[in-house]
Design a protein that fits this description.
The protein contains 7 helices and 12 strands. By secondary structure, it is α+β, with helices and mostly antiparallel strands. It folds into 3 domains: 6-72 and 118-163, no CATH class; 75-114; 170-291, no CATH class. The strands form 2 sheets. Strands 1, 2, 3, 4, 5, 6 and 7 form a 7-stranded antiparallel β-sheet that branches. A 5-stranded antiparallel β-sheet has the order 9-8-10-11-12, with helices on one face. α2 (75-93) packs across α3 (99-114). The two termini are 29 Å apart.
Length: 297
């Protein structure tokens, strides 16, 4: 359900009821991309049903979904069409187009091609844990997360959300686990990434490898710094945790979720997966807080 999780601490009021939050999100409802627009975004019902609420409240958590629609216009297509326009300009004027004229022709070409470009939609989901005051966003990049937060601010009027921090940096826990310390409910997985301390462009990744091997651990003593560590959590899920607390490659073990059949109501399946996810995340945040000296302000 969620592949990545970026955590944010929310300060201030969050709508208490499902109905109240849904009404606010409906104020920034998704509408299709205009004929000459490159991108549009807005909120939609997570259930996928047009007549449903714009959020879903289950077990103390809200599920919300942002839809972004964009026009697919390959750069190669623009380049090829522009070449034809430049050629026509030369034949018509017997002159070589100036840089300014080329920029003008390129803009005209993009505008004409944009209206007939194919459309594609991407959906970004988020959850809010009421008790913890924590927002989680399924975004692989900071830009995608900020896009989600930007539209959430538009819907709520204001949103004071800052990246979730702990008294001690998550890197400290990663190093302890990597070097062999046993921590309840956490086990080292089979993937990690390291980076040169003096050159952030130099990155080494190990996958499907026994990370407890001495030769792998020895790299920490040879100038490399741990940036990501694969973990098995609570014998139910695996994920990659970064040094700044971002979760990626989140996946439950097969059989962890309640058994559902292929013909079961998709909404019932979504609800089951969401409750399982948020319950696991709540335990994970509690354990991280315990190991890292508490949650930051």
């Amino acid at each position: 359900m969620f592949r990545n999780i970026r955590f944010y601490r929310v300060h201030g009021n969050w709508p208490e009821s499902e109905q109240d939050l849904s009404e606010k999100l409906a104020g920034v409802e998704f509408s299709p991309c205009g004929k000459f627009a490159e991108r549009s975004a807005g909120w939609e019902a997570p259930s996928g049903r047009e007549d449903d609420l714009f959020c879903r409240h289950l077990a103390g958590a809200d599920l919300l979904q942002l839809r972004t629609q964009s026009r697919v216009l390959p750069a190669a297509a623009v380049k090829e069409a522009l070449e034809g326009r430049v050629k026509e300009f030369r034949e018509r004027t017997n002159l070589e187009p100036s840089p300014g004229e080329i920029r003008k022709l390129k803009a005209q070409t993009r505008d004409e091609l944009m209206s007939s470009a194919l459309l594609k939609s991407d959906r970004t989901q988020g959850f809010f844990l009421h008790k913890e005051g924590v927002l989680g966003v399924d975004a692989a990049t900071p830009a995608a997360a900020e896009w989600f937060l930007e539209h959430l601010r538009k819907a709520l009027g204001q949103l004071n959300a800052v990246p979730l921090t702990f008294a001690e940096e998550p890197l400290a826990l990663l190093n302890r686990l990597f070097m062999g310390k046993r921590v309840a409910r956490f086990q080292v997985g089979r993937e990690c990434r390291m980076q040169e301390s003096s050159d952030t462009r130099s990155v080494v990744t190990w996958r499907e490898l026994d990370l407890e091997e001495f030769n792998v651990r020895q790299h920490l003593n040879e100038g490399l710094r741990l940036t990501h560590l694969g973990l098995v959590y609570d014998d139910s899920a695996t994920f990659l945790l970064s040094a700044d607390g971002i979760v990626s490659k989140f996946k439950f073990f097969e059989g962890s979720a309640a058994d559902v059949t292929d013909d079961e109501d998709p909404l019932a399946r979504q609800d089951t997966e969401f409750v399982l996810l948020t319950g696991t995340v709540q335990r994970l945040l509690d354990d991280l807080s315990r190991e890292l000296g508490g949650v930051g302000k």
